[in-house]
């Protein structure tokens, strides 16, 4: 009985110690999970030493087909803040994970849930919500991170969201935000100058994720390889797309995590240049930050235009 | 001499002048530099202000457009206000054309499944699936799930698919193949449908580990060994425990393991009015190869479940244990974005005479025209020793067409 009692005391002490350690660790840094590496980079820039950030995806995934990995669940369970792109970009995988993550404060609408799409001027809001139009995004095109001006909105949303949860660090977040925005503004000025040769260049994209990017740098998207969002092309569609590309002198075919089979086939028929771009940061060593990732896409595209 | 003296004087005066004047010249230069510096600083500040103003104007422009859009949206919202809080609604239509060598042909409308789901309040959500087929309309699931219990707990109540194994929690249209494996059908009773309560606990480990405890009237949609239509003794209820774990072996490789035990202290089946206890154990293992960068085009799943059933039944010589062991295993590979192919092996014993088995082999191919429209062809050969049903033997061919209308999700369990 006595031995049992002392064992119980030991157990309580060990548990207490574990909880104590846990509490100390959490007091040091704010745990943040983001869905994509772009958001992780910006959160690091804004939170600096106050945060510990991890992105669930690596940047190599096709955002509409991210595997629902149970290994994401413990991370979502422990995080204090969840930063998402929103506009249903994560709708095919995140809700199922949140269902079992047992973390009410990061559910949509709660204080620990930062939706970076708030305030973005959304493109391509569907006129009709009908799956005959393919895998439509009811709230508009969610790939807004590809417009660097939206990068500023994302950064502000992150800083605002962090300050809502942790008002004691508001001044630090604001200071870091201003520093980051200054850096981003310089980069934007540089990109706008760099992108002059892209003006009025006609492009074809595999999926409709390049609208924001094209809009910012003055390119014209004349068609997509998918017949409708998420629907693979039919032979007829490819034939008419090739004809349209020749008529309208399209120079570039952009694709992302999709197979290069159809882009190459079209390039052979039309003489256009194929270029693989990234729709989120993180996939390549030189795209590990948001600024480097936009830079990479722009340079790749400029290279392709020069080649074309 | 005078001129020399004059020159000397001039030189001395010049020197003195220079000595007096030079510092003032350099002082003048300094002050000019200072003022230039100040001017540049002011210009810098002005430029910074102008840049900030441009940025502010651009943001205002964007925000203005966004606000306008929000107003437009809210107008639309107001217009559709009476239906805006309706739950998500969807329907699955699952039909097959079948030929079974010993039973004949059939056009089989297997399911028209209506699904409804929504949050109830900040504390719970609910979902329901009502399925109609050519025989009946039945309530498959109608469950309430908590969303904000503390200590990593989640409770579920109502009618739902009990947390037993992996495929028992799938609606048949979610299977990678056409039919419910016979082992699952005979041993679990098809889907693990149950009326009762469940409590799950997400164990705070670095890897995914979840434990579930449950209590139900009975488990198994087609389980006729227990009656759940009227109150009965607590000893005739089914009690469940399950542990489920998941590990990423590498970036693209993962393994999921689960073990379940459903225990019924006392079963009553028509031929065993004084039935003893029943334990149904399950072990499930799923290996997945999901190359992150090309998951649209490549992938492989290897899944299987082993079921062990132990029943104490009364014989003339007293109570005796009857044990049956069965299960299935399948592999499925993604060939490209639209096509997958696989093979299912199934070993299904008869629960009452475990020596007799039905063993089946089924290759299948699936063509996903889109995420919501799927065609599947399957051939099955069933080697049947049980000899109870004509539909469970010989060569069989299936063509299945499954479509999804509206909102469709069975959530985490069928990922």
Explain the overall architecture.
The complex is a heterodimer of chains A (308) and B (415). In chain A, 46% of the residues lie in helices and 11% in strands. Chain A has helices spanning 2-28, 37-47, 72-78, 94-100, 148-165, 170-194, 211-217, 235-247, 261-270, 290-307; strands spanning 30-34, 51-55, 81-84, 113-115, 202-205, 220-224, 252-255, 273-276. In chain A, the strands form two sheets. Chain A has a four-stranded parallel beta sheet, with helices on both faces. In chain A, strands 6-5-7-8 form a four-stranded parallel beta sheet, with helices on both faces. In chain A, helix 7 (211-217) links the parallel strand 5 (202-205) and strand 6 (220-224). In chain A, helix 2 crosses helix 5 and helix 5 (148-165) packs antiparallel against helix 6. Chain A is globular, with a radius of gyration of 23 Å. Chain B has 415 residues and is α+β, with helices and mostly antiparallel strands. In chain B, strand 1 (88-100) and strand 2 form a beta hairpin. The longest helix of chain B has 78 residues, at 2-79. The chains are: A alpha/beta (308), B alpha+beta (415). At the A-B interface, helix 3, helix 4 and helix 5 of A face helix 1 and strand 8 of B.
Could you list some keywords that capture this structure?
heterodimer; A: 308 residues; alpha/beta; 4-stranded parallel sheet; globular; B: 415 residues; alpha+beta; 16-stranded antiparallel β-barrel; 48% strand; elongated
């Amino acid at each position: 009985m006595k031995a049992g009692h002392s064992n119980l005391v030991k157990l309580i002490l060990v548990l207490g110690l574990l909880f104590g350690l846990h509490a100390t660790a959490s007091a040091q840094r704010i745990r943040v999970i983001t869905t994509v590496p772009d958001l992780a980079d910006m959160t690091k820039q804004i939170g600096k030493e106050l945060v510990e950030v991890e992105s669930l995806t690596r940047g190599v995934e096709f955002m509409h087909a991210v595997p629902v990995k149970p290994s994401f669940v413990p991370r979502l369970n422990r995080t204090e803040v969840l930063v998402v792109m929103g506009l249903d970009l994560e709708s095919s995988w995140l809700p199922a994970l949140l269902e079992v993550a047992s973390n009410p404060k990061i559910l949509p609408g709660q204080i620990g849930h930062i939706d970076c799409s708030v305030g973005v001027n959304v493109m391509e809001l569907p006129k009709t919500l009908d799956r005959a139009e393919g895998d439509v995004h009811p709230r508009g095109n969610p790939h807004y991170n590809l417009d660097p001006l939206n990068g500023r909105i994302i950064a502000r949303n992150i800083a605002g969201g962090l300050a809502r949860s942790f008002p004691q660090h508001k001044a630090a977040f604001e200071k870091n935000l201003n520093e980051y925005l200054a850096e981003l503004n310089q980069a934007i000025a540089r990109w706008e100058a760099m992108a002059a040769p892209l003006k009025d260049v006609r492009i074809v994209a595999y999926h409709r994720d390049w609208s924001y990017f094209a809009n910012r740098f003055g390119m014209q998207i004349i068609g997509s390889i998918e017949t409708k969002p998420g629907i693979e092309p039919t032979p007829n569609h490819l034939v008419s797309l090739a004809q349209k590309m020749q008529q309208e002198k399209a120079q570039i075919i952009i694709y992302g995590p999709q197979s290069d089979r159809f882009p190459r086939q079209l390039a052979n028929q039309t003489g256009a240049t194929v270029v693989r771009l990234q729709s989120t940061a993180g996939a390549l060593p030189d795209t590990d930050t948001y600024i480097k990732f936009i830079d990479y896409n722009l340079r790749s595209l400029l290279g392709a235009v020069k080649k074309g | 001499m005078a001129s020399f003296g004059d020159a000397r004087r001039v030189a001395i005066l010049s020197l003195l002048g220079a000595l007096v004047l030079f510092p003032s010249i350099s002082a003048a230069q300094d002050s000019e530099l200072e003022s230039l510096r100040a001017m540049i600083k002011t210009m810098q500040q002005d430029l910074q202000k102008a840049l900030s103003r441009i940025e502010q104007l651009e943001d205002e422009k964007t925000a203005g457009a966004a606000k306008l859009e929000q107003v437009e949206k809210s107008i639309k919202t107001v217009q559709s206000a009476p239906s805006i809080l309706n739950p998500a609604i969807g329907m699955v239509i699952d039909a097959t054309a079948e030929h079974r060598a010993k039973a004949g042909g059939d056009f089989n409308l297997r399911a028209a499944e209506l699904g409804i789901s929504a949050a109830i309040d900040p504390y719970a959500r609910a979902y329901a699936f009502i399925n109609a087929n050519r025989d009946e309309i039945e309530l498959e699931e109608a469950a309430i799930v908590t969303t904000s219990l503390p200590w990593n707990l989640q409770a579920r109540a109502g009618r739902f698919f009990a947390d037993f194994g992996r495929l028992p929690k799938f609606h048949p249209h979610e299977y990678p193949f056409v039919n419910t494996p016979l082992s699952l059908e005979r041993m679990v009773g098809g889907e693990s449908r149950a009326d009762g309560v469940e409590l799950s606990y997400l164990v705070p480990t670095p890897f995914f580990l979840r434990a579930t405890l449950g209590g139900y009237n009975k488990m198994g949609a087609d389980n006729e060994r227990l009656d759940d239509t009227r109150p009965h003794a607590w000893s005739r209820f089914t009690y469940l425990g399950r542990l489920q774990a998941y590990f990423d072996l590498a970036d693209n490789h993962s393994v999921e393991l689960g073990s379940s035990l459903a225990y019924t202290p006392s079963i009553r089946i028509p031929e065993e009015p004084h039935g003893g206890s029943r334990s149904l154990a399950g072990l499930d293992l799923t290996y997945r190869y999901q190359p992150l960068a090309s998951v649209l085009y490549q992938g492989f799943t290897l899944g299987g479940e082993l079921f062990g059933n132990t029943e104490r039944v009364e014989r003339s010589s007293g109570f005796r244990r009857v044990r049956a062991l069965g299960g299935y295993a399948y592999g499925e590979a993604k060939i490209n974005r639209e096509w997958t192919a696989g093979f299912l092996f199934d070993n299904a014993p008869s629960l009452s005479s475990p020596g007799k088995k039905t063993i089946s082999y089924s290759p299948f191919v699936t063509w996903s025209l889109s995420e919501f429209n799927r065609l599947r062809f399957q051939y099955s050969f069933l080697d049947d020793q049980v000899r109870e049903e004509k539909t469970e033997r010989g060569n069989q061919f299936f063509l299945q067409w499954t479509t999804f209308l509206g909102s469709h999700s069975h959530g985490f369990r069928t990922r």
